[in-house]
Specification:
2 copies of one chain form a homodimer. Chain A has 4 helices and 5 strands; from the N terminus they run βααββααββ.
């Protein structure tokens, strides 16, 4: 969960309506599938399914991908961590309280 | 998206840690799959995938299932629609701003 800065909502929407193929390719290389970002009331909620075996390594690979870093340089200013985020945390984790397949 | 009333959080967690089999069966009969409820900062986000052909009819079937209604009689008091919910709306819809498979 992360906040979307109201003054940058239009930019964020525009960027995500046409995400760079290189960014999508890195998401796939990092073994992330069925990735959706939802928005309501200025709160972004992202959902994805991880199909790899080393999430930390796959997220680190994403964080060092030059094109992904270029992308984040555009999207990060649109976002603001929630008030309860941990120090240094960007997207804040949510807790799963129920699941059924 | 819906709010979880802080004073009922423990009850809501307890209920969802052991959801009634009849409620799970109706979810499946209503063609809902991969259903997860996430919690952060007093906000519940639910995610599911609909695999049927008539969502309204399948949700109506759920809403008329006696055991599901019994379940909702326990869970509804734990929840509170978000301030921006439409009149009569319980869970408020979010908007998908990005998706990749």
């Amino acid at each position: 969960m992360i906040r979307l800065r109201p003054e940058h909502e239009a930019t964020y929407r525009r960027l995500h309506a046409d995400v760079w193929p290189d960014v999508l390719a890195q998401i796939a290389r990092s073994n992330i599938r069925n990735y959706t970002i939802f928005l309501r009331d200025g709160i972004l909620f992202s959902y994805y399914e991880y199909v790899g075996t080393d999430l930390d390594a796959d997220l680190a690979a994403m964080a060092t991908d030059p094109r992904t870093r270029e992308w984040w340089a555009l999207t990060d200013p649109c976002q603001q961590p929630v008030e309860t985020a941990a120090e240094g945390e960007w997207w804040a984790p949510t807790e799963e309280v129920f699941h059924t397949d």
